[in-house]
## 1
Amino acid sequence: MSGNVVSEGGDIAGSERGFGIELYADTGLVTVQNNIITHELSNNQYLESVNIHQGANNDIVTNNIIYKWGGPADFYDFGSGNITSPNAINQTGYLDPERSVETYMASLGGNATLAAFLDAAGNQSKTNWNPQYTADAVNSYIEAGFATTGGRRRRESPRSPTTAARSATISPMDTTLTVTGTAAANSTVTVFDGTTKSARRR
């Protein structure tokens, strides 16, 4: 698990949550690296930025940014043999760590609410596609806020050369899908309506 943003974890229908990333008992290596866990909104007094449950052993949880999701005591490791350091917990020196979905919408000139973003994302279609209303765009915006004042992020997300690109464009009346960036030859990409298209690499 790498390169994700977990933001504003809250409660569900009055049931207290505030959980970031949880690892349950596993039978193989689990790697959790280069993620951002930021700004919990739960009323739960038992917050969990990361919770490694009993039976989750010999896993790697490192190089993650944890910011305003409780304190260091809210990182739990009940397994054995796990590598859980280093992680950046409540560090300072970030450019704009208070970024959120709401401030992202405000930066686009829209209503500064999560509901506004979800409405815009839900109205996407193959013929009406705006990459600004994707999780990838929001993640990149929040990640940029965790660059340091020296202009570099405290963590880098490794990219595999065979990983699909972050952006794709589809002509409204065309069936051609053009992928920009790194993608394996003869890839297939699932588009918003659930169909798949062949991805031609440029």
Note: Confidence is low (pLDDT under 50) at residues 154-202.
## 2
Amino acid sequence: MKTDTTLLLAGVKDRLVRTSEPLYVQIRNLLAEKIRNGEFKHGKRLPPDLELARQLGVNRLTYAKALNLLRREGLVERHARKGTFVKALHDARALAYGANARLVGVLFDVAAEEAFHAKLFVSLHRALTDVGLAVKFLSAENSADIQFAQLRSLIHGGRVVGCVVWSVMTPEQIAQIMVLRPSTFPIIFLDRCVDEQASDFVGYDDVLAGRLLARYLLDQGHRHVCVPVLSRSLQLSTIRDRLSGLREEFAAEPNGGGDGIHVHELGDEAVVPIRDILRERPDRATVVALDDTTALRCVKAAREASVRIPEDLVVATFETRDLCGDPKYDLTAVRLPVEEMGTRAVSTLVARLGGDTRSAWQERLPGELVVRSSTDAIKRDRTIEILMSRFGLILDRQKRRVGYAQACE
């Protein structure tokens, strides 16, 4: 006869799907939901890890990663030689500040439709509400000064217990914030890490992402890539790291390619000069945009100039929003784990609120390559190149045979 836990976990297993969201994050979300709605009662002992992983149909490592997230958030606790137990939700909600102070500031760079990180916001909101924390959302409208003032106000306001920040502030402003904030007020920075500051950070492994995209292009036969980028964006660690990854992989290419990355700095108007790029590579140009907003501008500029993608222009980028996969764009990209970043950021925040005092917590998450139609021309041209090469070898062999026959006569 099946136990209550087995029946509940069967419901979790049935809801696991293969998406861009890792399985362990899905497991964490579904188990947190059952704790929140009371299906898993306070003090309930969970089955042993190996047994629970088997019931969920995943390996033990995947389940362990989900359990670590829940433990960091205070939703479960492990006792040596006794097992893992569900904690009362009100214990997790109270955290270190009492039940009446449950507001977390979520500060984004901008809330405009084109640039809003909707998937990230949903992930943050869900993870925060799972542990009884409410969201106070603020947009800086891409102004470093506005965001600095907002964050300083939240630190001194008394109602907010911590913040998650997609920063547009300068390194100097962040340094001031880190001095102003009390040690009991956690701030988790997203996406962009300020190397000089010992701050908590959850973002992407942008160097690895750059190398992954470069490796794909090189394997498809491309040795020259144009990288359009706003001059001011080069100050951001995200952009610098992606560019560094591209350059490292091209430099390591044994068949040439070390000088194949050409940075095209854009002015403040952010207009991508497609015709100029095509003049530099009249046969066919390849563009790598270091963020998806620039990639969409490339597509728009190409269409306005009657340039075909991928026949005349190949475009690849780094994806943090669903727009890249939209049939209107269909851009090859390294998809970065947006939902996972939100979940990890909240886990870190809750751990800090729970009294974790370890040194700066910095985590970089790997992405995955998604090949779409915007690079189809690379595949077609590479196939033709290979066929022509083989055809040339056949002709050479035929010539040698004719020469040998004539010599024998």
Note: The domain at 206-337+369-385 is CATH 3.40.50.2300 (Rossmann fold).
## 3
Amino acid sequence: MMQDSEQLKNLLLTQRMDFRYTGDDLRFSGKTALDIAVMTYVDAINLLLKGPSKDEKIMKRALYLAIKHNSPEAIKLLIADGAQVRSGLYKAVQLRQDETIQALIDNGYGVDLLGAAIGCCCEGVIKKISDVVDVRSTNKNGQTALLLAAEHERFDLIKLLLGRSSDVEAVDNKGRTALNIAAYA
């Protein structure tokens, strides 16, 4: 770790987020200030988010790193500050990190995570997410878990979701029901 937290604070406040660390700590060699912040200090993320070069690309990268490093506190902080989650969902599912998955579910991304898990064929994660997600909630496309299961032809999951009071008449933003989707699959 850097020898002095005040040194890190000054680095983060005075440098751009894409500044690369060149000190003696090999764990941070070549890492950006943002990488270091996500890897080590949630408080440092707060400093970076107030910095001069905060933008959507930086936020996306920070969230990806928070997911990669299994930092639920950083995930919550970044989502609260407007980070777009979609790019990190597959990484969260692939890494199967319970705390990260729970942080994303707690912040309203359960249906999206379920879609990512279905797409990755991660059976254990599918089961875990489907156990805690509100089966009637929707993603930004208006899709419920049932609609996603139908889209991916996952009849085992459809059966499971129907047993959990899924709305069979739910319609996505394109006006399709699970039955419409299944009929054209």
Note: The chain has two domains: 1-84, 110-185.
